[in-house]
Amino acid sequence: MTQDLAREGMTVVVVTHEKEFARAVAHRVLVLEAGVILEQGPPSVIFTRPTQPRTREFLREVLHLRADGNS
Predict the structure, then answer these.
(1) pLDDT tens digits for 20-33?
(2) Which controlled-vocabulary keywords does the entry list (predicted)?
(3) CA atoms within 13 A on the CB side of 3
(4) CA-based angle 4:46:24, to the nearest 5?
(5) Nearest CA among 53, 15, 11, 56 for reference residue 35
């Protein structure tokens, strides 16, 4: 349903901890901590080359990202 709405041109905001879902369907990903946006960008960048240390740490824990930011 969410993907159908997006295909129809509807803006859809989804809050999730499901990284693979976000990677598959998002056009833009925001990483928040304590309500503050740490980083934002396309999933291809956020999940493979994050610029913020806290984002890298978080993704390393959930996606086994290497410490240098590369997967």
Answers:
(1) 888 888 889 999 99
(2) Cell membrane, Membrane, Transport
(3) 5
(4) 25
(5) 15
